[in-house]
Each structure stands twice: as C-alpha cells, then as structure tokens.
Amino acid sequence: MDQLGAMRAFIRVVQSGSFSAAAREQNTTQATISKKVAALESQLGAKLLTRSSRENSMTEVGAVYYESCVAIIGELDEAEAQVRSQQASPKGVLRVAAPIVFGCQFIAPFLSHFLECYPEIKVDLMLSDKHVDLIAEGVDVAIRAKQLEDSSLIARHLFDNPMVVVASPDYLKRFGEPKEPQELRSHNCIVYSMLKSVNIWHFEQAKESDDKISVPVSGNCRCDNGEAILQLALDGLGVVQLPIWMVDEHVKVGRLKVLLSNYIAKPLPFNAIYPQSRYVPLKARCFIDYLKQRLAESPNYR
After folding, report:
1. From its phi and psi, is residue 236 left (phi > 0), alpha (psi between -120 and 50) or beta?
2. Start-end of CATH 1.10.10.10 domains in the chain
3. Does 3-84 carry CATH code 1.10.10.10?
4. Is the pLDDT of residue 81 over 80?
5. What CATH number labels 161-267?
C-alpha cells in the first residue's frame, strides 16, 4: 500500500467533504479514493470515517489521526521543496480563511493578480466571521483581527486595523452628536458580537497622552457581521465602531459622519495566522508576503 498516497486521499476526503470531491481533485475515481482510505483503515486497525449517504464524518480516532497526517504531509511537501530549490515555484492548493468583509473588499479584488504571479497555486478562499480551527479545517493561512491566543499557531503582523466611530446624519439629527466617549453610554450603540469584549469600546486622546478610556456601550442590536453593522449604521439605527477602510467611502460622500475626532479608537491588530511547523509551506509564505505588500500600498492600512 502507498501509505503516503492513502494519507493524502484521507486528508482531501475530510477537507473536501466527500470521496467524489476528492476523486475529482485527483483526477481519479471515487472507488479508488475509497479503496485507499479503506486500506489505510485496515493497516491501522481502526475506523477513520463514518460513512453515510449524506456525509462522511471523522471518528474520534480519525480526528486525531487526521491532525497528524496534515502535519506529516505538510512537512514532507515543504522538505521536498526545500531540497529541490530555495527558489522552487510554489504550487498546490492554498486554503485561506478570512473575515467576510475583509475577504470581499481586499483579498478577492487582488486574487486574480496573485494567481497570475503564481500560476501553479490554486486558492480555496473561505470567508466567515466565525472562528476557524486551522488544523481541523486544513487551513494554511487565516486572517484574523485579534491578538493570537493559541500557542500552537504563529502570527505574522500585517497592520494595525484603524477603527473609527461613526453614525448617519439622520441618527445624529434625532439624538445628537456625542462629544466625549462617555456620552456613548446614552446612545444606541450597535456592537460586533465576535469580539472578546463586545460591549466595551476603548479610546485614547488624539493628542499625545497616556490616558486610556474604556466605555461600556449598549444598544438594541448586536451582530456578528461587519457589513450588516455598516448597513444598520447607514439606515440610521445607531452608532457603530468599524475599521476606517469599511466606512471611508461613505464618510467622503456624507452618508456617515466620523464622531469623537479628538479621540483615537483602539486599533485591532490584523495578523496572518498559520500552524506551527518546522517549515512554513512556500505557497503560504508567498501569499502572506503578497498580502503584506498590497496592504502597505493602501493608505487605509498603514
């Protein structure tokens, strides 16, 4: 039995969700992929997948074995690339996870150019504001607007995500404009529910000062998607705190107004996250380098 080939087949069945999808990727038949996984299970003496007509799910031992397979195959692929040449052409499927708005507004528009630069890479772009388990989902690179909390991962800083507080002219006409952060307590604040400190907004004075201000906020709506929060602000529902690159266009044409200009909202660090391993896959390094370069060229990300 080709154990490495069987391990690769098992990994792709898990990541793609089915034997047929894995077979299409490898230009073979579903029966061939099924035989490889069955042979692997026979050699291990353990059931890795529970099969049904609707889906395939990993068994408990299968989940443990899957994580080991991903690590082994990843290091093997990169070791081979290192031996062939330091200038080896990056290739293979690159699985990238990113927040929905950031992925749509920044990654997607430049993806065609990235693929032109690296024609042997295929990108599987996964957009979700939910937390993604990189190992379980087979993700090579995840973009996250938060501090790294998992010691099994590595973070490469991309930029500090500048935040601003905004509201629509209609809302401000009805409820007045806050001049100090503490006045936000009396306003309807729409919060992003995926943050660790959902109902606390942090500020510093725009002029040089060590004073830090934390304000508990509340409102009649919370949401786990930035684009939806932006729309609620445009509709005049309340005050929101969002990245400047999300609202800049609307501010320029007067649909939103920046509030508390004498204060700086605490920025969120944007990082490229990837699993710890002896070698970082060349395809992942190329993507992170490309992304960091494009961000450096955009004034809203500096």
Report:
1. left
2. 3-84
3. yes
4. no
5. 3.40.190.290
What residue spans in the chain does CATH classification 3.40.190.10 cover?
92-159+269-301
Rounded-to-integer distance, Cα 143 and Cα 204, Å: 26
Q: Which two tokens stand for residue 24?
A: 């299409």
- What are the Cα distances from residue 106, in Å, to 102, 231, 246, 301? 6, 19, 10, 11
The span from the CA of 271 to the CA of 48, in Å, is 34
> Rounded to whole angstroms, how far apart are CA atoms 127 and 190?
22
pLDDT tens per residue across span 153-189:
788 888 887 889 999 999 999 999 999 999 999 999 9
Per-residue pLDDT reduced to its tens digit, 11-49 = 988 888 888 888 988 889 999 999 999 999 999 999 999
Per-residue pLDDT of 113-137, as tens digits, reads 999 999 989 999 999 888 888 877 8
> Among 60, 59, 68, 89, which Cα is nearest to 4's?
68
For domain 92-159+269-301, the CATH architecture is 3-Layer(aba) Sandwich (3.40)
Reply yes or no on whether the pLDDT at 250 is more than 90.
yes
Distance (Å, whole) CA 190 – CA 211: 25
Whether residue 85 is predicted with pLDDT greater than 60 in this model: the reply is no
